[in-house]
Amino acid sequence: MTESLDRRLHPVRPDLAAKAYEGRVTADRFVEGETRRVAADLVDLKGAPRPDKSIDTQALFGETVTVYEENAEGWAWGQLATDGYVGWMPASALAGPAALSLPTHRVMALRTYRYPYAELKSPPLGILSLGALVSVVDRQTLRGLDYAVLSDGSAVVERHLVPAGHRVEDWVAVAEALTGTPYLWGGRSSLGLDCSALVQLAAQAGGMALPRDSDMQETSAGETLDIGNGLPELERGDLIFWKGHVGIMRDRETLIHANGFAMAVTSEPLADVARRIREREGHAISTVRRLVAS
């Protein structure tokens, strides 16, 4: 028995599949998988275990990955818990769950340095993006600055964090704060991102878990608005879709989106974007969806 499954969301290959798919698909063997956490600031997920393959998406520090295989070249094949994305990543970027305790907080600043200890003058260990997850075990204050001490002994500035379950009221403001962030195909961090990652990261700050790619968001994010007789009266936070692209309405007329035209997150009149995409790519607006916070 074999189902046609999207490789991006289902850990299934002809030679190996997750145990949960046994009886549904044909594979040489089925495995339970092992829980790991991302121990690198940022790690690329790819469709094949090769450094020259393009980035499908990225995993952030502290996120959970179920690993189903590690090969001799140091690649791990697994599924990201945040949005279910499946791909290959360097095994060296992952640690066992004991090495990184259960996350208690999320990075809410666009990015924050992680120091070896609570001292901003110390050489940083790395830089964490908006959305990264950390486990806070202590707090320290040095020269009037409060630090959150993490489970591995490192430290970040406390005001850059929020509790893991925190929700902002105006999630579009998070997208606006990312204005100027470079466009990166497959990117999913404040260092570089693509159109659907901008939507996903901003919505996450508002407590809404969205799928990773624009085609997935177009079929499942929020509620569909009728555009049979033209565009409805748009509201802040409405999502506008074209084939392969998505943006967020800042108001009734202005769209913010990560785009390859500007190679950055920019805001511009929706009418201008729609005209340009129609003229350059031949695509009209295909769907409008409105997110509803649960």
From TrEMBL:
It comes from the Bacteria. GO terms for molecular function: cysteine-type peptidase activity. Residues 165-292 form the NlpC/P60 domain. SUPFAM superfamilies: Cysteine proteinases (SSF54001). Keywords: Hydrolase, Protease, Thiol protease. GO terms for biological process: proteolysis. The keyword Protein biosynthesis does not apply. Belongs to the peptidase C40 family. PANTHER family: NLP_P60 DOMAIN-CONTAINING PROTEIN-RELATED, PEPTIDOGLYCAN DL-ENDOPEPTIDASE CWLO. This is C40 family peptidase. It comes from Stappia albiluteola.
